Structures are given as structure tokens and as C-alpha cells.
UniProtKB/TrEMBL annotation:
Pfam families: Aldedh
PROSITE patterns xrefs: ALDEHYDE_DEHYDR_CYS (PS00070)
Sequence ranges assigned to domain Aldehyde dehydrogenase in this UniProt record: 16-473
Family under the similarity heading: Belongs to the aldehyde dehydrogenase family.
Protein name stated in the entry: Aldehyde dehydrogenase family protein
Organism name: Achromobacter denitrificans
Keyword terms: Oxidoreductase
Cross-referenced Gene3D superfamilies: Aldehyde Dehydrogenase, Chain A, domain 1 (3.40.605.10), Aldehyde Dehydrogenase, Chain A, domain 2 (3.40.309.10)
Length: 479
């Protein structure tokens, strides 16, 4: 496929414009070369985006849910028509393989379509009154202007998830997308505009993350903020949102344990978890990372993971045969190497990988570590890379203690056919997304949210749309 323009600018009040702060390169992490530019907003342009969203809110929120949903469903169809073009741009700026890029866009298409359907299903409830002849109405009402802040690791589906739910609810949005993957956001916003989205309903800005976030969350017009990213940044955004009591919807860090019990089929465990572990180079908050294996299967699991890790072909996503792409940028390489080196220094066995690949771009080898010491940083810090650790656990109590030993409480995975073990682990694990004998993807039709340092609020399902609405209680009687 021929190269195409990956430049990305601001979208304010229905028009594209260059950011006044100037350009920065859009880097292909698989080569280290620029594939376009992204231009950054100044404070006046951020304010213009807020003003546009505020002006558009009365008109957009007054439309019926079916009318809003029709635009989302049309955008879904348009994105499906453009999937090859958009996938090519996504893989160029993100380092993903073609399979990962296409898979992400299919989830984005599904997300926009589902929220388009849900827009027409959201309705109030009628309750009996407390005195004869009276009724009480629970009426879902759009909150207002929403700030959505999205990361680089899934730059299409996370934009689609946040925009889909907020627009279905009747809110307008200022989207602050990642400067590392600006084209993906540009493509989705353009698709919505082409589907007939009125001007001002969605506004896209890029810029200095800290400065733009401070300005957006200082606005009294903003009623909710949706953010996916690190726990550290999430806490900073929560502090910025607090003075105006802006409703937070946060999906933050994760460090998912994988408990592999004595009766598990090790080959099947690796077959099922490897795509989630090594897909998108392991840069996912629900990626299985800390394998906790019963002694009966520990050695076989290590062997199977090592064998799987060595099957990957590293390369550019556009190259035939590539099965593992790059990490996002040089900072991810440095963090990955530091965690691996710390683990080995504290006694871990480097079973395979553990090094930067000697080629252009930001590539690290798929890595497996065994006998990892409990004081190793990699067991506490989210590695966000293609690395798996394996530890031996003698009992359910030990498995639970190690699984719950991080500050994160997002995803966890359990492999066993023992109902007793399964039920006890589900009851005791600090995790909001648990997969039993399978992975646990977040899909648009069911609510999912983090616990503790993994966030709060919900995305997906009816609850994900209601997150951008207020349930007003109207009690009425005849005079």
C-alpha cells in the first residue's frame, strides 16, 4: 500500500486547523523515522474547543437518542469501508502488526455501532409514588461537556469507546488524544464528521499534556472527564477535577496475574494467553504478566512460554510475516530493560529474551523470567512490554497473596477445572475483570471498570453510557 498523509491537526467547531504552538514529528516506532507531523494547540485554541463544545451541547442533547445513534452507526459503517487505509496509518504510527491494527479497528467499528444502538435504548423509569395518585420518574439527562483523554497504546478503540458512549448519552466532547498516535484520532473524528456529526459536538486537540489538561479541567463548563492511562497521571487528573467536582471515569494501570493450577493444560494456557501477553508488544493494562504456577505444572509452563516467545518474528507491521511489532518509543525500551535487569540482579532466571533488538526502531525481545524474587520491581511496576514472569505457588492462599500484592486491581486470569479453587479465587482476587480458562476482553456491551489504583467508573454497557448522564428524580402528583 502506498504511503499516505499521517499529518494531524486540530478539529475545532467542525473545521480542521493547524495548532498555533507548532509541529512535532509523528514517529514510526518501527523505524524511528518521521511519517508525518502533529501540530499542537495554544491556550486560545483549547479555549475555542471548549467554547465550541459548550455551544453545541443544547442542540446535540436535544436530539433523540435514535438520531444521535444514527450518526454513530453511520460512522461505524464508514470506518468499516476505510479499514485498510486507517489500519495502515495506525500500524505506521503505533508499531503494531497489521493483524493487531486491523483487530483494533474491528473492535472500534463494533464499539461505535453498539453505542449507536444503545443511544436509542437509554430511557427513564416510572416508579410508584408514596401517596395515592403520584408517580416518580427517573430521567437520564446528559451531563454536558466531556473531556476525553486517550493514550497511545490503543489509539483507535479507546477513542471510539469514549466518543461512542459520551455522544450516545447526548454529551459534547473535547478530545485530547495522544501526540504519539495522532493520525488514528484524526481518522475517527473525520469519520464522525463525514457521518453528519454537527459542528462543535466533537473537538480534537493535541498539545502539551500537562498544560492542556490543566486548562481543560479548570473550565466550569466541563462536567466529566474520561481518561485511560497510568495511575500516576490519573491521580493528577483527579486532583485537577476535584475543585469543580468534575465526574471522573478512569481506566488506569494493571498488572494481571495468571494463576495456573495443577490440573491446567499448560499448552492451552499459553495458546490462550500469548496473544494478550505479546499482542501490541504487551502494551495493555489487561495483559497477562505475572504467571503464578502450581509446582506440578511450573516447569512445563516455563518451557511452553519460552518456546512460544521464541516463535515470534519481530519486524515492521507492514512486512509480510511480522508477528511482533515494536514498543511505542524509546522510553518504553529503557523502562523495559531496567525492570528486566533489576529482576535478574535480584536472582531471577532470564529464560529467554531480555535485550533490545539491534535494528532501527524501538524493538525488545519477547522475554520470560522465572524464579523472580518477591522484591523485584517488575512484580510491582506495570511492565507494559512483551515480558512474562513465572513464580511457583504451593497453595491457593499463596496464589491469592501474590496475585493481590500489587496496588492494581484490574484483570486476573485463572486456569483450572476445579470448581472449589475457581470459586475461592474469584471470591478473593482483587480484580474487576476475571477470565476463567480464557482471557477477558473488554467489549462494548458489558460494563468494565477498575478497582483501587486501576481506576473508577465504568466503560462499556448501559452503565458506560449512563456514566455521562445524571439520573434526575421527578416526583409528581395531581393538584
Amino acid at each position: 500500500m502506498a504511503e499516505h498523509n499521517l499529518d494531524a491537526h486540530l478539529f475545532i467547531n467542525g473545521r480542521w486547523e493547524e495548532g498555533n504552538t507548532g509541529p512535532q514529528p509523528n514517529i514510526d516506532p518501527a523505524t524511528g523515522a518521521a511519517v508525518g507531523v502533529v501540530t499542537l494547540a495554544d491556550a486560545d485554541q483549547v479555549q475555542a474547543a471548549l467554547a465550541a463544545a459548550s455551544r453545541a451541547f443544547p442542540v446535540w442533547s436535544a436530539l433523540t437518542g435514535q438520531a444521535r445513534g444514527a450518526i454513530l452507526k453511520k460512522a461505524s459503517l464508514l470506518l468499516a469501508e476505510r479499514i485498510e487505509e486507517v489500519a495502515h496509518g495506525l500500524l505506521l504510527e503505533s508499531g503494531k502488526t497489521r493483524a493487531d491494527a486491523v483487530g483494533e479497528l474491528r473492535r472500534t467499528i463494533e464499539t461505535l455501532a453498539w453505542n449507536g444502538e444503545e443511544a436509542g435504548r437509554i430511557s427513564g423509569k416510572v416508579h410508584q409514588g408514596v401517596v395515592p395518585g403520584s408517580t416518580r420518574l427517573s430521567l437520564p439527562t446528559p451531563l454536558g461537556v466531556v473531556v476525553a483523554i486517550t493514550p497511545w497504546n490503543f489509539p483507535a478503540v479507546l477513542v471510539g469507546r469514549k466518543l461512542g458512549a459520551a455522544l450516545a448519552a447526548g454529551c459534547t466532547v473535547v478530545l485530547k488524544a495522544s501526540e504519539f498516535t495522532p493520525y488514528s484520532a484524526r481518522a475517527i473524528v473525520q469519520t464522525l464528521a463525514d457521518a453528519g456529526l454537527p459542528e462543535g459536538v466533537v473537538n480534537l486537540v493535541f498539545g502539551d499534556p500537562a498544560a492542556v489538561s490543566r486548562q481543560l479541567l479548570a473550565s466550569p463548563e466541563v462536567k466529566a472527564v474520561s481518561f485511560t492511562g497510568s495511575t500516576q497521571v490519573g491521580k493528577q487528573l483527579a486532583a485537577l477535577a476535584a475543585p469543580n467536582l468534575i465526574r471522573p471515569i478512569f481506566e488506569l494501570g494493571g498488572h494481571a496475574p495468571v494463576i495456573v493450577w495443577s490440573d491446567a493444560d499448560v499448552e492451552k494456557v499459553v495458546q490462550l494467553t500469548a496473544p494478550a501477553k505479546f499482542g501490541s508488544a504487551g502494551q495493555s493494562c489487561v495483559a497477562p504478566t505475572r504467571y503464578l504456577a502450581h509446582p506440578a505444572v511450573h516447569d512445563a509452563l516455563v518451557k511452553a512460554l519460552v518456546a512460544k516467545a521464541r516463535t515470534y518474528t519481530l519486524g515492521h507491521g507492514r512486512d509480510e510475516g511480522t508477528t511482533l511489532g515494536s514498543v511505542a518509543h524509546g522510553g518504553r525500551v529503557a523502562a523495559f530493560l531496567q525492570l528486566v535487569e533489576d529482576a535478574v540482579a535480584k536472582g531471577a532466571v532470564l529464560e529467554t529474551g531480555g535485550k533490545r533488538v539491534d535494528r532501527p526502531g524501538f524493538f525488545v525481545e519477547p522475554t520470560v523470567l522465572s524464579a523472580v524474587s518477591r522484591d523485584a520491581d517488575i512484580l510491582v511496576e506495570e511492565p507494559f512490554g512483551p515480558v512474562a514472569t513465572v513464580q511457583s505457588v504451593e497453595s491457593v492462599d499463596e496464589a491469592v497473596a501474590l496475585a493481590n500484592a500489587t496496588p492494581y486491581s484490574f484483570a486476573a486470569y485463572v486456569f483450572t477445572d476445579s470448581l472449589r479453587v475457581r470459586d475461592e479465587l474469584v471470591r478473593r482476587l482483587n480484580a474487576s475483570n476475571i477470565g476463567i480458562n480464557q482471557t477477558a476482553p473488554s467489549l462494548p456491551d458489558v460494563a468494565l471498570g477498575g478497582l483501587g489504583n486501576s481506576g473508577y467508573g465504568y466503560e462499556g454497557g448501559t452503565e458506560g453510557v449512563l456514566a455521562y448522564m445524571q439520573l434526575r428524580l421527578v416526583s409528581q402528583s395531581a393538584l
